Amino acid sequence: MRGRHTAKPQNIISLKHINKSFPLELGGEQQVLFDINFDIRAGEFVAIMGPSGSGKSTCMNIIGALDTPTSGIYELYGRDVTGLTPDELAIVRNEHIGFVFQQFNLLPKRSVLDNVMLPLMYQGLPIDERIRRAREMLHRVGLEKFESYLPTQLSGGMKQRVAIARALAGNPKLILADEPTGALDSKMGNEILQFFKKLNDELGITIVMITHEFDIARYANRLIHIRDGKINYDGPIPRNDNNL
User: Closest Cα partner for 164 from 185, 145, 181, 187?
Assistant: First the structure.
C-alpha cells in the first residue's frame, strides 16, 4: 500500500569494537578477536563461518552470554550486557536465547518431555504450564509421540529435534546454533537445516548459526566470515567460498 510505513527491524545483537584475549600459562596473553563489529536484526538467519582457530567459537560464546569480551560493547536487545556478573548473564541466557549444540546436551536418564521442560523449570513456571509448553514444542518438531522415550532410544536427528524443542520452549526470539549438524549424517543434517529455515521463514525467529562448512552456511541468508580473529566478509551468501 502506497504511503504505508513499516517499522525497521530492531537490532537484537550489536557488537561494537569487540576484542578478546586469553591469558597464557607462561605469562602474557593471546588475542583471538580483533575489533569485531556487526549488528544482527530481528528475523535474520545469519551464519558465522570460519576455519578452526579463527575465533568464531569465541565470538559465539560472547553472543551467547557465555563469556565476556576483553574490551568493546555487546548489546543484546538494546541492553549493554558487557559488564554483567556471571549470575546476571545466566538470567540473560535463560530469558532471551535458545541454544542448540552439536552434541545435543540432553540428559540421558530423563525423558524427552523432561529434557524439553528443563529451561522452563529455571524460569519458575508451574508444572502444568511447563508440561503444556513442552508438549506444544514437541508437536512442533514432530515428536509428540516420543515424550516418554529416553534420549538413548532416539536417532541423532530426533535428538537434535528434541534439542530444538528445548530451545524453543522458553519462547526465545533468538536461537544460537553451534555446529548443529556436526554429529549427524548429511541426510539428517539437511533435515535439521531445513527445519531451521522453516522456523526463520514462518515464525520470524532470529537464528545465528556457527559453522565451518560453506554448504551449511548457504542455508542462511547472510554470512559473516571470520579469519584470524577478524571479519573478512559480511554480506549475502556468495555463490562459492573461493574468495573467503
Answer: 181
Other C-beta atoms closer than 10 Å to the C-beta of 177 total 26
Query: Into how many domains does the chain fold?
Result: 1
Q: How confident is the model at residue 1 (pLDDT cuts 50, 70, 90)?
A: very low
- Find how far residue 168's CA is from the centre of its chain: 11
DSSP annotation of 156: H
Compute the C-alpha angle 167/129/134, nearest 5°.
35
User: Grid coordinates in use for 133?
Assistant: 509448553
CATH of the domain at 163: 3.40.50.300
pTM of the model: 0.89
Closest CA to 165 of 87, 91, 111: 111
Let me know the angle formed at the C-alpha of 101 by 100 and 106, rounded to the nearest 5 degrees: 90
In the numeric block, the cell 521442560 is attached to 117
